[in-house]
Amino acid sequence: MKTVNDWKDYKIIATSDGMKLEDWNGVILLRPDPQVIWSGKDLYSYPQINAVYHRSEKGGGAWEKRKNFPAEWTVSYKDLTFKVKPMGFKHTGLFPEQAVNWNALKRIICATQSQNKDKEIKVLNLFAYTGGASVACAKAGAKVTHVDASKGMVERAGENARLSGVESGIRYIIDDCMKFVQREIRRGNKYDGIIMDPPSYGRGPGGEMWKIERDLYSFVLSCAKLLSDKPLFFLINSYTTGLQPAVLKNILTLALKDFLGQVEAYEVGIDTEEGIPLPCGASGLFTGEGYGN
Prior knowledge:
This protein has 293 residues and is an alpha/beta fold.
């Protein structure tokens, strides 16, 4: 497992009975987490909680807002700044554990540009949500195309880009990712890096259905047609329960067999103040021979 432990504006205070207690730059949230199947402290009794997310037996849930709970606020990670705004289904608009992947992509981009200062690095971020990876890559100097089917999430991504000072480095597309990729193939466009964080299930603006177990491999094959001759990276991140890192490694190994490079896969997690890592998802990363050249 690869974990991140150098956040200053975020930390997991404790975990117990299906919940995690988090400090988001001084705002304390208590949220469900399906990985926390152990018992420990009574987290609900923590005296400084600003909001609790309660699941509903009918599906979904709602936030119970307590004292001094702001509508939105910001957190920073190194040179990146993000807006936090709790939404439906327990989300906040940011996944702090993804700093593991932000750091990896920034290292690849920066190392390549240090060797070739005139090289324009083009990155495509699919299912790009609120743009954590888009902002990280743009901060490192890449030109990013950010694609998501949700207008609201793309607007949030634009806010994060402005907060981090990289608004000019990102192009935003509101579209179904599969349709966008097919158009890019027909246009002959190429990218040095591709990122995707596909949902388990999804529906595009025109009612297009996505099922990760049915569609992921063929979609990666299509995306491979957009890679430059010597690509820098291809990152797949997934929060789908039961999808093992080795599956992502196999998909990348098979789909990118015509490109020179190496593939690694790993669990993504975040260290807690209890001294244990909390697993949060799986990632597969192809690093191509273009890295550093």
